Amino acid sequence: MKQLIKSLKLIFLHPMNKNKPVRTLLRLIWWKINQVVFRLPVICQITPNRKCICYPDSSYGGLIVYLGMPEYEGNTYILNNLKPNDTFIDVGACIGDYSLFASSIITKGHIYAFEPYKKSIEMFEENIRLNNIKNISIFNGVASDKNGYEYLSIEKESEVNHIVHAKNIHNGVKVSSITLDRYITENNIKRVEILKIDVEGSEMKVLQGAKESIRAKKIKKILIELNKNNRFFGTSNQKIITWLRKHQYNIYLFEEDKVRKITNFKEVENDQIVNVLAIKKD
User: Fold this and answer.
1) What DSSP line would sit under 27-68, residue for residue?
2) Where are the strands (E) in the chain, listed by range?
3) Predicted TM-score (pTM) of this structure
4) Distance from C-alpha of 11 to C-alpha of 24, rounded to nearest angstrom
5) At residue 38, what are phi and psi to the nearest 5 degrees?
6) Which of 119, 183, 217, 265 is deepest in the core (most CB within 10 A)?
7) Confidence (pLDDT) at 169
8) pLDDT tens, residue by residue, 191-207
C-alpha cells in the first residue's frame, strides 16, 4: 500500500501532470485497462518531432504514458542544453527515451547509446525506425571499467537491470563490456557535450572506464543518477562526488526547473537516489 501511494503521488505531482488531476486519472485508468484487456502498444508524442512506442508489458513504457518525461529534470536539461552538432552518450539507455530527446535536438552530431538487455534494445530500435533517426548507434552491452564482459542481473522491471557485483556473478547473464575510453577512441569522438549515466549502482565503474577521456577534457558534462546500490561496488554517493570534483567538475543538484551548485558533498546523502550534474571547469 505504501508503494502504491508513493507511485500515485509521483504521477499526480509530476510537473507534466500538475493541475491536471482528471486527465491524469483517466490516462492511468485507461492504461491499466489496456495492460489487462487489450494489451496494445501506444505511440506517445514526447516532443514535437519525436514519438515513443510504449508496450503494456514495459514498466518504463508505462512511465512514459503516465508522465511524458519520466525524468523531468534530466529530460528537460537535455532538451535545453544540446545543440545540433553535439555528441551525446547515453549509458543505460533502456528503451531509448533520453536518446530520443537528444536526437530531437542533435541533427548533425551523433548519439551513442549503451544497453545490454535484448528486449529493451528491440524497443529502442523500433523507436529509432518510427522516428526515422539516422544518427543513433547502439552498443549491445555495458560501459564498464574493463573491456570484455560483465554479468547482468535481469530484473522484473528492465530499467533497473544492473551489473552484478563480484560476489553474485552466478546470478547474472554474461554481457559484453567496454570502457568509454576505448569506445571514444575507436569511434574517433573528439568531444562529448553530455554523458548520461543511469546504471543502478555501477556508476563508478563507468567513470573509471572514462578517466582518460575525462583527464583529456573530452567530456564536458556528466548527468548521472547516483544510486545507493553503489555500496555493493565499494563506493558511495559522496565518494563519487568527491571523485568528480577531484577531476575538475563542478557539481550541481536539480531543483525543479533549475540547477543549484553545491560545494558541500554532504548535501547528497549516501542512502539517496538522486540525479546530479557535473560540469567540467574551464
Assistant:
1) HHHHHHHIIIII---EEEEEETTEEEEE-TT-HHHHHHHHHS
2) 42-47, 50-54, 87-91, 110-114, 136-139, 142-143, 148-153, 162-163, 173-178, 192-197, 219-226, 249-255, 258-262, 274-280
3) 0.94
4) 8
5) -90, -35
6) 183
7) 63
8) 999 999 999 999 999 99
